Amino acid sequence: MIETLPILTKSIKIYPPDYDDLLPDTDDVPLENPEHLDSIAILLYSIREHWKNKNDFFAAGNMFIYYHLEPPAKSVGPDFFLVKDVDGAIKRKKWVVRKEGFRYPNFIVEFISPASRKKDKEGNLKIYGNEFQTPEYYVYYPFRENSFQGWYWNKKLGIYKEQEKDARGWIYSKELNLYLGLWSGKVFEEDGKWLRFFDEFGNLVLLPEEKERKKAEKERKKAEKERKKAEKEKEKAEKEKERAERAEKEKELFIKKAVQGGKLTVEEIADIFGVPTDYVKKL
Asked: What is the value of pTM for the model shown?
């Protein structure tokens, strides 16, 4: 997105009370490439899924932020931003700081490109720092690993300081209590190296469809385990039956030999083998 021009002419001296409501919520400028759209969706849907039990934040992608304290309107359109400690149940098409208690984003990500590189790495640092004082700001050129950078706002110095990456190349976000780093894999049927969230234990923060697939895979493995267990129990029962049948045949053979030997009475044989006398007589 680009900065919008004031929607009211200079000849108008008194701004209407619904000025902020009349501000446009789109500039009809498409995103530069499909990877930008997918990258935004990944962050947006994964954080919403991860925080689905929370209702005190607002996260959006490719949305205007109007940050004028007084008209005329001034705006930027971050690829992804998140504001904490606000009513997340309110539906918004744009973020107007004057109507939101002068709340600015806590966390911003821009997906850069050759065309936007200078604006995202220089111009936006000034706006998100000097104007917003957003605690954390990150940039990434989709699929170019070395392009991932992050900054934190140093209140004492009043400047952005670059964040350090850990051994995995991740950056810890104090604002979200999550790591932000690159992950290789397929998302939305597209292979790539995506910017993703990870929890404090290093687990990938899953998208809703990834969570469903994981759940389905877990259930499939559980069903497979139960099937194999049932097969083993069946096999065990069949072997036990075979063993019992062999033992019975061997016992019959010994009883027959005892009867044929003629040295023991039917009663004695029945007592030795623990069977009824009628059983011995039949043999």
From this structure: 0.76
